[in-house]
Amino acid sequence: MSYIYHTNVPNNLFDIYLKDLGYAELKVFLVIIRQTYGWKDKRTNSYKHWDWISQQFFVRKTGLSARAVSTAISKLIYKRLIQVKNKQGSLLFHKIERQRESKLYFSCTLKQKSSELTSRKPMKKLHTTIIKHTNTYREDTSQAFKKIQFSKHQKP
Predict the structure, then answer these.
(1) Where are the domains of the chain?
(2) Do 145 and 139 touch, CB atoms closer than 8 A?
(3) Residue 37's closest CA among 121, 90, 111, 104?
(4) C-alpha dihedral over 22, 26, 32, 36, to 10 degrees?
(5) How far apart are CA 94 and CA 99, in angstroms?
(6) Which of 34, 108, 117, 156 is most solvent-facing, going by the fewest CB within 10 Å?
(7) Each residue's pLDDT tens digit, 1-33
């Protein structure tokens, strides 16, 4: 592997995910991109797909605490932006699984088409409540408004 003086960052990071990433998540994610896409094999002319990255390396490169790094990794796994595996090649999804391993290998999953990424993105469930003002319920007849009494300012 040879050192490259620039790193190609996938446009999907900026176009789709940047607004949804927190500060720590972005820092950790950029370190993973740097450690994978930032190294090129001269023989095959391809980038590294996986790289072993220690917790302390993340702490040194990002300036974050170990807890913040671990939380950011969990969020990135949940958002399916990275994958983490152990020496045996088993994917690790939970923090407890990662804590048991001595070496963790990280990979960025942004190489796919943007349409595939948006369909894989976790959906948020929304709960909406619709309140209609009718004769049986109006703001002026609400129990909450009856309990609140405003004192009128009297002139002397």
Answers:
(1) 2-125
(2) yes
(3) 111
(4) 140
(5) 9
(6) 156
(7) 666 678 888 888 899 999 999 999 999 999 999
Q: What's the whole-model pTM score? A: 0.67
Of 16, 88, 18, which Cα lies nearest the Cα of 50? 88
Neighbours of 48 (CB within 10 A): 14
* pLDDT tier at 132, thresholds 50, 70, 90: low
Amino acid letter for position 117:
L
Token duo for residue 20: 């949804």
Of 99, 97, 106, 108, which is closest to residue 52 (Cα–Cα)? 106
CATH code matching the domain that covers 2-125, chosen among 3.40.1280.10, 1.10.10.10, 3.30.300.130, 3.90.650.10: 1.10.10.10
Tokens representing residue 140 in the block: 């002026």
